[in-house]
């Protein structure tokens, strides 16, 4: 790890607290990535023997991240299923991803199906009712949700993501690591099916296989919900491979000298939005103010060799 030497001007004698404050300020400035204002990074002295940076993001960082997502479709080239943004100039690298493209139509979850949504703002689903106060708390949350939330919207998108780029000065044989699928927590959902794990991560209770065919018995409301969900968002059985645990593959490849190799992969993301009584779907989706998000790496790859000579 590269060590950075810190120089603190100290023309006068300072007490311990003053000297420590100056040192901390210099340390934070040296550790801060270039181009990021100081107000976007949070620092806090946690231990008497040193300084430790907080891991969680500040409010400004979260807003910055959300703004970047909001501007993605404007900054990145349009999604093209045939190929990713290609390198055409030896002096200019393509962006790290393409813009997102919608798959299927937005799927609405109406109030009668709110029990399927695990919304942290209204956590009454699965709440314990071991006492009258707990029962009343759950009832109040449920009533507040129906009073304040009109419906939820789920959308599905896809985009190209650059996951590796390399060039060698001589002919080289090396391994390229490819990751597929989605990482899940097994603490609570190890017994669930692949598609149910996807739903749990998103915050939905589908309690079944979303890739099944249309239900034979239309009176089965649960099966009908699963079918409408997958049909609207255009999930198919081939997507089963996308929503599984992460798998890593290493491929041995021979690289030609003085050639850029760019490795791309199509990613899917499914986003859950909360729509209040005063909001329109398009307004909330355009703001990228989703409450849950699942991103999975598919098995669709593209490799572009680009000669630099």
Topology:
Layout: H1 16-31, E1 43-47, E2 50-53, H2 59-75, E3 101-109, H3 132-148, E4 149-166, E5 172-180, H4 186-189, H5 194-202, H6 221-232, E6 247-255, E7 259-276, H7 281-287, E8 292-307
Antiparallel strand pairs: 1-2, 3-4, 4-7, 5-6, 7-8
| Structural class by SSE content | alpha+beta
Which percent range describes the beta-strand content?
Answer: 25-35%
Termini separation comes to: 34 Å
Please give the largest β-sheet: 4 strands, antiparallel
Order of helices and strands: HEEHEHEEHHHEEHE
Count of alpha and pi helical runs? 7
Helix proportion: 25-40%
Radius of gyration: 25 Å
As laid out across the biggest beta sheet, the strand order is: 3-4-7-8
Low-confidence region ranges:
1-16, 26-59, 186-191
Report the principal-axis shape: elongated
Provide a quick synopsis of the model.
With 309 residues, the protein is of the alpha+beta class. The protein has helices at 16-31, 59-75, 132-148, 186-189, 194-202, 221-232, 281-287; strands at residues 43-47, 50-53, 101-109, 149-166, 172-180, 247-255, 259-276, 292-307.
Keywords:
309 residues; 2 domains; four-stranded antiparallel beta sheet; 8 strands; elongated; disordered N terminus
Could you describe the 3D structure shown?
With 309 residues, this protein is α+β, with helices and mostly antiparallel strands. It has two domains: 18-53, no CATH class; 78-307, no CATH class. It is built from seven helices and eight strands; from the N terminus they run αββαβαββαααββαβ. The radius of gyration is 25 Å and the shape is elongated.
């Amino acid at each position: 790890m590269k060590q950075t030497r810190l120089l603190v001007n100290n023309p006068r004698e300072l007490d311990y607290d003053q000297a420590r404050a100056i040192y901390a300020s210099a340390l934070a400035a040296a550790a801060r990535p270039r181009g990021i204002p100081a107000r976007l990074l949070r620092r806090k002295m946690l231990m008497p023997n040193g300084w430790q940076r907080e891991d969680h993001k500040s409010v400004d960082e979260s807003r910055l991240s959300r703004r970047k997502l909001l501007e993605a479709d404007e900054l990145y080239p349009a999604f093209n299923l045939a190929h990713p943004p290609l390198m055409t100039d030896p002096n200019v690298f393509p962006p790290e991803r393409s813009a997102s493209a919608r798959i299927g139509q937005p799927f609405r979850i109406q109030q009668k199906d709110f029990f399927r949504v695990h919304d942290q703002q209204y956590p009454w689903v699965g709440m314990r009712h071991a006492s009258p106060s707990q029962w009343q708390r759950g009832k109040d949350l449920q009533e507040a949700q129906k009073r304040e939330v009109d419906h939820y919207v789920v959308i599905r998108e896809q985009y190209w993501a650059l996951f590796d780029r390399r060039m060698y000065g001589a002919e080289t044989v090396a391994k390229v690591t490819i990751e597929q699928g989605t990482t899940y927590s097994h603490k609570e959902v190890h017994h669930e099916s692949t598609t149910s794990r996807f739903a749990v991560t998103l915050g939905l209770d589908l309690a079944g296989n979303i890739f099944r065919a249309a239900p034979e018995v239309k009176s089965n409301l649960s099966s009908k919900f699963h079918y409408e969900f997958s049909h609207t968002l255009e999930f198919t059985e081939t997507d089963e491979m996308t929503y599984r645990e992460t798998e890593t593959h290493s491929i041995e490849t021979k690289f030609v000298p003085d050639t850029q190799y760019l490795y791309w992969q199509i990613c899917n993301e499914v986003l859950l939005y909360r729509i209040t009584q005063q909001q329109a779907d398009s307004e909330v989706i355009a703001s990228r103010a989703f409450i849950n998000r699942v991103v999975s790496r598919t098995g669709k790859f593209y490799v572009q060799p680009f000669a630099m000579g």
